[in-house]
Structure formats: C-alpha cells, structure tokens
C-alpha cells in the first residue's frame, strides 16, 4: 500500500504534464492555421483591390513583431532551464539572428511575388510542397529518420506540386500572362524550399546554439529575426522605389483608404499570430511537425478562397488537394506511431525503476 501512493502520484503528474503539453500543442496549432489562412486571404485581397507592392507585402509579414513583447513579458521563463546551460556569446547570437532574419526577408519576398501572380488556392497548394522539402532538410540537419510513411508523403506531395505546375491556371487572375504564372509558380516553390530550410535551421539553433528550453527563448528568436527581416524589407521598399506609389495605391484602393490601412494592419497581425504558432510548435515538438500543421492551413486556404474569392477549383486542383491531404495524413500517422512508441518506452522505464526500488 505504501508503494502505491508515490507511484499513483507520479502517474497523476505524468498525465497532468501530458495534458499541459497537448494543450500547448492545440493552442499553437490554432494560431498557426488561423493566422496563416487569414494572412494569405488578406494578401490576395490586397492585390485584388489594386495593391501592387511586393515589398510592402513582404514587410507586413514581419512588421508586427513588437506585439510579441506582450507574451514575452507575461510568460515567465524557467530559471532552472536557463541555469542548466551556458548562454551563447552576443556575437554568436547576433550572427544567428542576422543570418536567419535576412533569409526570412528573402523568403517572404518570394512568397509575396508568388501570391501576386497566383490565385490563393493555387498558391496554397504549391506551398504544400514545403512538407516534402522539410523531410529532406530534417533528415540531414535534425537527424529525422526516413520511414516508409514519410517517403510516401514526399512522393505524394511532389506529385501534388507537379500537377499544379502543369495546370493551366493563368486565366484564374485577370491580367496574368502564362509567363507571370510560371514566375509565380517558381517563386512560390522556391519560397517553400527556403521556408522548410528555415524551420530546420531554427530547430538546429535551439539544439546546438541556444541550448535552452524556455518559451521566452523561442519568442526572442522570433522577435530578433523578425526585426532583421523588417529592416531588410524597409530597405527593399525604398531601394526599389515602391514607397513612392504607396500613397497612390491607398487613394485608388478598391474598398477605400480605410480598408487599405485595415488590410495592411490585419495582415501584419495575422502573420505574427501564425509565426507564434510556427515557432511554438518547433519548440514543443519539432520543425517537421510544425511544417505538417502548416500544411493543414494550406489545405484550409483553398476551400476558404473558393468561398471568399470564388477561385476556380478544377479537377486537377481537387486531385492536387487530395494528394496534399494524403501526404499530410501519412505524416500525422507517423507522428502518432512515434509518440506511442515513446510513451511505451517511458512506461517500461518507469516499471524497471519501480522494480529496482522494490
């Protein structure tokens, strides 16, 4: 009887920690999916109503980073976790944040260019290829093992992107030629590859450089890389001369000046909500799982774009979306198998320790 008390308490604490873990996962999934879908739809709305600045669209993807200081100050960091590892030097941290920030700015510009020339549904389906890219980068950078399910997902998602590539959707947007459609496809595909690389590099930074397991560290990385990306975007906006057309853009915006301002502001806020979910899932689970959930949002966006913008969903797009969902399901099932195996091993370890105590 005396041995059952501590064991029961340990099991209760284990279940409580597991519930907290799943709660954080669910919250971050909501942030990622809702933020991503809303931001893409608002970005397409900006272009549809007369907006044409790629650098402004790039800027809004990181410009709202100051709102991340709110959770940074409200959520206390774990002093125990911080004390258990050495803090990297300022030079190393600055180098990591600078490199990732510049890469994020370039990636955002490619996404903005792709969305300019593609419908929201086509854009989102091409972005689903990032899951296949992430599997490759995670294998080499994060020691993520390749299983039959993961390989199946890579192949299926590659086929999905290939279907979109051969799909003639150039008439989906008025004034978009076949050449611009191809440019949009190439930019979006390249952005998906770079984004997957970014996720793996972020996870590698947490493991090898930062070596801290606190949510504040995750937020700090997001804040400082977004600061660098925002500065690069501002420089690009002025260097390209697009800043000169912003006033005229606002005046001629289809839904009026107030709608122009609100569109820009809420797009920026939605991207930051998405970023919190992305980095949170990298911290809590892995970059691979974060990219899997991003694919959920990409599957939601085409459906929402059909409802909001009446995008065309021909047979090729429907098949591509089903393939993307198939690839996503394979990843989720693999993650479920890995999680079940980890819990069985943890349970076996607990039983071994209890037997040795007895």
UniProtKB/TrEMBL annotation:
GO molecular function, one term: purine nucleoside transmembrane transporter activity
GO-annotated cellular components: membrane
Lineage: superkingdom: Eukaryota
Matches recorded under InterPro entries: PUP_plant
Keywords: Membrane, Transmembrane, Transmembrane helix, Transport
Transmembrane feature ranges: 21-47, 59-78, 90-111, 123-141, 148-166, 181-202, 223-240, 260-285, 292-310, 316-336
Membrane disposition: Multi-pass membrane protein
Subcellular localization: Membrane
Family label: Belongs to the purine permeases (TC 2.A.7.14) family.
PANTHER family: OS09G0467300 PROTEIN-RELATED, PURINE PERMEASE 11-RELATED
Name of the protein: Probable purine permease
Organism, scientific name: Eucalyptus grandis
């Amino acid at each position: 009887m005396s041995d059952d008390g501590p064991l029961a308490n340990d099991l209760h604490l284990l279940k409580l920690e597991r519930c907290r873990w799943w709660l954080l996962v669910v919250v971050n999934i909501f942030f990622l999916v809702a933020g991503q879908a809303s931001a893409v739809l608002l970005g397409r709305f900006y272009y549809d109503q007369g907006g044409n600045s790629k650098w402004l669209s790039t800027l809004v993807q990181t410009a709202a980073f100051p709102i991340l200081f709110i959770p940074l100050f409200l959520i206390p960091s774990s002093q125990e976790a911080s004390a258990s590892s050495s803090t990297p030097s300022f030079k190393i941290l600055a180098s990591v944040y600078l490199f990732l920030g510049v890469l994020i700015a370039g990636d955002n510009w490619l996404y903005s260019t792709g969305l300019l020339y593609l419908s929201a549904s086509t854009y989102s389906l091409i972005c689903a290829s990032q899951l296949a890219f992430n599997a490759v980068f995670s294998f080499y950078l994060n020691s993520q093992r390749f299983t039959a399910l993961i390989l199946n997902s890579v192949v299926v998602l590659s086929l999905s992107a290939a279907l979109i590539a051969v799909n003639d959707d150039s008439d989906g947007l008025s004034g978009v030629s076949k050449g611009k459609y191809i440019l949009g496809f190439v930019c979006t595909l390249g952005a998906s590859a770079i984004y997957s690389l970014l996720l793996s590099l972020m996870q590698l930074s947490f493991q090898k450089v930062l070596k801290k397991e606190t949510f504040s560290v995750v937020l700090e990385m997001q804040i400082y890389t977004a600061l660098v990306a925002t500065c690069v975007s501002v420089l690009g906006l002025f260097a390209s001369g697009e800043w000169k057309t912003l006033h005229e853009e606002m005046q001629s915006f289809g839904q009026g000046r107030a709608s122009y301002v609100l569109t820009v502001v809420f797009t920026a806020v939605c991207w930051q909500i998405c970023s919190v979910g992305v980095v949170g899932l990298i911290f809590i689970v892995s970059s691979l799982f974060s990219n899997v959930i991003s694919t959920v949002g990409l599957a939601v966006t085409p459906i929402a774009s059909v409802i909001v913008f009446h995008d065309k969903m021909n047979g090729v797009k429907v098949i591509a979306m089903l393939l993307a969902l198939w690839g996503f399901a394979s990843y989720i099932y693999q993650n479920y198998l890995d999680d079940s195996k980890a819990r069985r091993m943890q349970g076996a370890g607990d039983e071994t320790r209890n037997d040795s105590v007895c």
